[in-house]
Amino acid sequence: MADSKNIIIGLLVLALIALLFFLAFRPMTYSSTYSQGDYQPGHMGPGMMNNPGYNYSYGPGMMNNSGYNYGYGPGMMGNMMAIYYPESKPVTQDEALKSLENFASQYGSNIQVADVMIFSGNYYAVLKDTNSSQDIAEMLVDRYSGSAYPEPGPNMMWNTRFGAGRTTTGAPEYDLNEAKKLAGDFLTGYLPGAQVLESNEMPGYYTFDFGRQDIEGMLSVNAYSGQIWVHTWHGPYLGETNITG
């Protein structure tokens, strides 16, 4: 009798584990889960850290820039494991640029969209402060849903103006040239033959485009720790455009 009871309990535990695994890693039919209206620049509220599409789990390593623990929530995993219908088509370039401009306006009237790049998965753009001519943040527009949102990764976790990096104190350890050298050293193993092609100095970190001839990817270097974060969410590079279309 006791053995039968133990077997039943064991089966229930296995069933529960299987259910949790399914919920965490199930592929999801593609849809946008991000609401632009929820985001408040410079504020770690529901729009930033707790929105359903981007669930970041961060501990001391993340907040202190001595390492990071990047936790994927169901929404993030769903977007990364998206299933598209065969008839799915990307939004038009004009629609994507309009989404970029509308989202940028939430940062203030002095913020403009610059350096627009097109990847298979999304449109990428740098936001620039026209008062200081400084790059302040990175954002994306999903190429299939048209939803605009802050770029994940360094933009959310290392940005000292709008992200979790606002808790960082002290002076940066690496300037742009030193960070570029760190990126180049990393690329010798990550993508042999690749070089840093273009750069942007962001608050608390630097973002570099890299490739062997043309742009093949993007990575960021933390200005305080020297850590490198590869932007793996873009997909293949398709080209550039500009905000005037």
TrEMBL record:
This is Peptidase M4. It comes from Methanosarcina barkeri MS.
